[in-house]
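User: Structure tokens for both sequences below?

Assistant:
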Amino acid sequence: MDRWNGARFTGSGAYESWFLRANAPDGASAFWIRYTLFAPHGGGRAAGELWAVIFQRTADGGWRVRPFKSVFPIARCRYAPDGLDVTLGEATLSAEGAVGATEGPDGTIRWSLSMEGGERPLLLLSERLYAGPFPKAKALVPRPFVRFGGKFEIGDEVLDVDGWVGSQNHNWGSQHTDEYAWGQVVGFDDAPRTFLELSTARVRVGGVRTPWLTPIVLREGDREWRASGIVQAVRNSGRYDTRSLEWRFSAAAHGRRVSGIMLAPRDAFVGLPYANPPGGTKTCLNSKVATCELRIEERGQIRTLRSEHGAAFEILTERTDHGVKVADVPDPRAL
């Protein structure tokens, strides 16, 4: 875990993020907090970005999604090359937990979270790709199945976090992936030890778009099924739509076929503006209360797993036809 959490940030033309996410056992709430380092290409000022999003079920069955964000000069940020040790302003993140506060339209949100447990790291890509130039954006899960405790405070409101299960994640690169969907399920409703990680993405290489790549990793207890090598990822199928906010995917490898769908209603998403190191801004359509249904075919047997409101589902896009409200948050390049 320490190896895969160490900072790679160079301070120029790069971004790096460590984020935590978890869902309440009753499926009515979820959180996402993200500690980010950002530096534009061309020698612009580096900065730290502290994000938080709270997802809560409303009385009428819809979703209330509240985003928060603050930006800090890089002089107020600290990060370690070995292990999880990040400071942005007064906010801290370590293997033991996270403490922080940031701002949003609903005022100030504060959190104090402990982290316990977790399983061995899960790599979405082949290990050798994490040290190479391709892809320009890397992502992995240093700590799946973390159990969180603590609380969030938003004004006079307190959201208690007691035994929420989720993950601690790490990603970095010299630019954001051109187009992608990313998904994760930390325990299905009827299979609490099953972990799903996948993406569908394509990038430009020398001005030419690659084919769509859909790496998928499914871990069931101690057994890990991977369909994530470059050739396999091209063979896999993955298609998402920014208007319907649905994503369908499938893969066949090692005697098993896995297929599924991920989706969420529009009010379960928030649009988050992501500054890109080479320039420009992309929008991350972010939900942590999505639905995922997974079909597993193996040896003539078919199993169906479902997570009703526990899937993480993100789409990174430059399109504007998604109908998701985009948060008005500080830009790190404006410091």
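Moving on to the next sequence.
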Amino acid sequence: MTDLNGQDERGLVCVAGATGFVGRALTRELLGRGWRVRALARSRDKARSVLPREAFEDGRLSVVQGDALDEGVCERLVTGADACVNLIGIIRESSGRQTFKRVHTLTTRALVRACEGAGVGRFVQMSALGVSDEGLCEYQRTKWSAERAVRASSLAWTVFRPGLIHGREGEFMQAAKAWCEGRAMPHLFIPVLTRLDPEWAPPKRPRFEDPVVSPVWVEDVAFAFAEALDRHSAEYEVYDLVGAERITMREMMVELRDALPLGKKKLRVVGMPSEVAAMKARAAAAIGLRDALPFDEGMAIMGGRDSVAGLDKASAHLSFAPAPFTETMRAYAASM
């Protein structure tokens, strides 16, 4: 394939969030396709430890160190680039500057402005499945406002909305591994979120059901992002990204437990209603114990919803053919 200018030699892509889970996979994919990559990272040392060393040595990979909202950082990142990919995001807020508004909305706006000022033509944005201005939580609402900033820009943009992303180094899969091995609370069982059956009505006993997910492999996500840069037809398009297999969260945990060499087969998977989990998280935050639970209110709310979507558009436009979760996970479980 040719690059954005129709030339055989690829140009320079800036990747904001390159040292993250998806960023590491995308950087490898872009380098493998012949692009040069300039990574934005808070730590130069971390970037050099997790990104391909040989690409640093031969000059195909470089780093801009800093926070995207620090003065001049975005401009240094994008100057002379052909495209910019924004992967920066958080799943929950923490103390200091790590707020949804700052990380999702303000950072995206800063990157868009810098790209417009530097003449960068192409912009690819990582959003999330289910975002809207009426999102269920602040995570979804700020992801939506970031999308709006991209789509209102003068750039040739593409927006991706992935569901649950899985892979050997993924934060969720590492947490799930600890549960399945009994190394993390609650130790005695494997927790999953459930939701109230919408057909239930009193005075009957409440019934709960398991959310359905289509986990998408991180390498497939990286393929889709890189492929979008190769195709003008992907410009001004929004794509949902999910995997090929639909599975309940309960089934997913059982598969992982049984595939892990140290997984404790006797541990049962126990559901907690997402509504109850959300109330617990809200109460913990109100008394200054926001970090005492492994989830916040928004994560609890989203965890009780399905995370599925159609594949037709991404398949037709990007030749996106994602791998099924169970088969892929079994291949990497032993090396987690």
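User: Anything stand out in the second?

Assistant: DSSP finds 13 helices and 14 strands in the chain.
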